[in-house]
């Protein structure tokens, strides 16, 4: 599910058992001029305390992988979607930056361009090129089985980032690193309740189907509204495919078919920014006539809060480089890695956006 950032110093603390904070740096090119500058110690991505991680541990021995020094290793990174949004730009750049910082012998990078068949072949190709560790941002939660089997056959460990797989940990992959997406949905609902007073008609711009991010962010939001704001009615749920143009198009249609909409929850910033454009085109004031809350933490969305045209953004930090390689080092050092390594995400709203916009990617 998004992308952009910069670079700075990085402090790695502990990650799992004894884990505390892992400061991350990420750096990247900008998608637009608004996003062109950001210094990133702000980019800090922190793993929650060990008790917030879950699942049984996976060790080098239980996975059956050979010991490896990352400095002499060939590492493969499989990106799922084209780098046309800030999240993907930031994620890929963070992996590259950290590999360079650690002196990794060779980093192979691929981009599946949102095609599952290509992601499978990308991973298989990297294995053929001698990849000894794989970091994968899955396109979907299902469908990567041929690639996972190819990695398992060669005893190549797989770390997944930002989306979970419907597969068996410590057999098909070592661990998932990422956010608690249900919690993100709940926090988005809380922000929506705060901005609307808990009353109104809300439309949900769903992410792409087939992955746990969309399912979980929807569940968290819907359940929280039911529990805390019975005065808010969900009047539409329609996919915007995590894309800005699709988010705009869907919002235009929704405003025509349901002109009494007073709020929009977008499951990523790109769709939220598309909705903002559509609300303006309809002659309404975004952030006022129609409240907008989304998930990601991109510079453009946070700046829109500062501008008074957006109401809140729940962060989903894409700077996985330091966390991924720190986890790999622990794994190769003999430590057990939990099935889910959950990071903590910040939030932006009208109260803090101006002072914290520099943290956005």
Description:
This protein has 361 residues and is α/β, with parallel strands linked by helices. The protein is built from 11 helices and 13 strands. It has helices spanning 60-63, 86-102, 116-128, 145-153, 181-196, 212-228, 244-257, 269-281, 299-306, 321-332, 353-356; strands spanning 46-47, 74-79, 106-111, 133-136, 158-161, 175-178, 200-206, 232-239, 263-266, 291-296, 312-315, 340-344, 347-349. β7, α6 and β8 form a beta-alpha-beta unit. The radius of gyration is 20 Å and the shape is elongated. Residues 1-41 have low confidence and may be disordered.
Write the SSE topology.
Blueprint: E1 46-47, H1 60-63, E2 74-79, H2 86-102, E3 106-111, H3 116-128, E4 133-136, H4 145-153, E5 158-161, E6 175-178, H5 181-196, E7 200-206, H6 212-228, E8 232-239, H7 244-257, E9 263-266, H8 269-281, E10 291-296, H9 299-306, E11 312-315, H10 321-332, E12 340-344, E13 347-349, H11 353-356
Parallel strand pairs: 2-3, 2-4, 4-5, 5-6, 6-12, 7-8, 7-9, 9-10, 10-11
Antiparallel strand pairs: 1-12, 11-13
Helix pairs in contact: 2-10, 3-4, 5-6, 7-8
